[in-house]
Design goal:
The complex is a heterodimer of chains A (131) and B (141). Chain A is mainly beta and 131 residues long. Chain A contains no helices and 10 strands. The radius of gyration of chain A is 18 Å and the shape is elongated. Chain B is mostly beta strands and 141 residues long. Chain B has a domain of 90 residues: Immunoglobulin-like. In chain B, 12% of the residues lie in helices and 37% in strands. In chain B, a hairpin with a 2-residue loop joins strand 3 and strand 4. Chain B is flat. The termini of chain B are far apart. Classes of the chains: A mainly beta (131), B mainly beta (141). At the A-B interface, strand 3, strand 4 and strand 7 of A face strand 1, strand 2, strand 5 and strand 6 of B.
Chain lengths: 131, 141
C-alpha cells in the first residue's frame, strides 16, 4: 500500500576507495534484494540505461553490474538548474555458491533492472517428514 | 516539577534533527519552488524550449500525471514496488510511495505544445516558451 511520500534522495556516487580508472561519474544504484523459495532476486534502479548498455558479469562468485548512461542527449542542452548528476552505474555483489549460475536471468523495465538468481537444486528448502 | 527524560540522547538527537531540517530546507535558498521534493529534476534550455528531466525508476508510465499551467509544471504519480507473496527481504534500499512536485519555470509555457517522453525510467519534458514570452526584434525606422 502506498500512502507515504517518496523522500528525495541524492544519488550515491562512488567514493575514492572504489574509484575507477574509467572516465566519467559512477553511481551506486539503489538496490533491493529479496528471496523466494526458488530464487534470489536483485532489483536495481538504473534510470536512463538502455537494455543494450547493460553489462552483467559473473566471475568467481562476484556479480558485477554495469550500466552506461548515454549522455549524448544532454550535449546540445544548456543547463540552467540542476539537482542531480548523470553518470553510469556500477555495483558488485558476491553470490552464494548455492546459486544455479546457468539459470541467471535479467530483465529491465522502466529503469529497474531485475536479476533473478535461481537457487541450485541442493539449496532448495525441503520439508522433512517425520516418520 | 520533575521533568523526567526517558532517554536524553534521543531528545538531543531529535532536537539536532529538527535543527538540521530547518537548515536543510530550501526556505532561505535560491532554489526552485518545490526543491527538495521527489523527483529531483534538471532543467535545461534548448533554444526557445525548456527541457525538464527527472529520474523515476520503477514508476509506470500510466502512473504518471503531468500538468502544465502558465509557467508551472506539476509532476504527480506513484511508485510501487511489488514482490512475490512469499518473498523475504534481505535488503531494502529503494523507496516507494506517492509524489507530487510543482516546478516553476522562468517563463510562460505554451501548454498545447508540450512534449513528454518516458523511457528507461527517465522522464523528459519539452516545454516550449509561449509566443507571448518570446523576445521580439524591434526594427528601427
Amino acid at each position: 500500500m502506498v500512502s507515504q511520500e517518496v523522500a528525495p534522495r541524492e544519488k550515491r556516487e562512488l567514493d575514492h576507495a572504489q574509484e575507477r580508472t574509467e572516465a566519467g561519474r559512477f553511481f551506486s544504484p539503489y538496490s533491493d534484494i529479496h528471496e523466494t523459495d526458488r530464487a534470489v532476486i536483485v532489483s536495481m534502479e538504473v534510470p536512463g540505461v538502455d537494455k543494450s548498455a547493460l553489462d552483467i558479469q559473473l566471475d568467481k562468485g562476484v556479480l558485477t553490474v554495469k550500466g552506461r548512461v548515454d549522455a549524448a542527449k544532454y550535449q546540445s542542452l544548456r543547463p540552467i538548474y540542476s539537482e542531480y548528476n548523470v553518470g553510469s552505474f556500477v555495483r558488485t555483489f558476491s553470490v552464494s555458491p548455492k546459486i544455479d549460475v546457468s539459470g541467471i536471468s535479467a530483465t529491465v523495465t522502466d529503469g529497474v533492472l531485475r536479476i533473478e538468481l535461481p537457487k541450485a537444486k541442493e539449496a532448495l528448502a525441503r520439508k522433512i517428514a517425520v516418520n | 516539577m520533575v521533568i523526567r527524560m526517558r532517554d536524553p540522547f534521543s531528545t538531543l538527537l531529535g532536537l539536532q534533527r529538527a535543527m538540521d531540517n530547518v537548515m536543510g530546507s530550501d526556505w532561505f535558498g535560491s532554489r526552485t519552488s518545490g526543491a527538495g521534493a521527489f523527483p529531483l529534476i534538471n532543467v535545461f534550455n534548448d533554444g526557445d524550449d525548456f527541457v525538464v528531466v527527472a529520474e523515476l525508476p520503477g514508476v509506470k508510465k500510466e502512473d504518471l500525471d503531468i500538468k502544465v499551467r502558465g509557467d508551472t509544471v506539476r509532476i504527480q504519480g506513484k511508485k510501487t514496488i511489488a514482490y512475490e507473496e512469499d518473498a523475504s527481504v534481505h535488503r531494502r534500499e529503494r523507496a516507494a510511495g506517492e509524489f507530487d512536485r510543482t516546478v516553476t519555470l522562468p517563463d510562460q509555457i505554451d501548454a498545447a505544445m508540450v512534449g513528454a517522453e518516458y523511457r528507461d525510467g527517465v522522464l523528459t519534458l519539452r516545454l516550449p516558451r509561449a509566443e507571448s514570452a518570446k523576445p521580439r526584434t524591434v526594427t528601427i525606422n
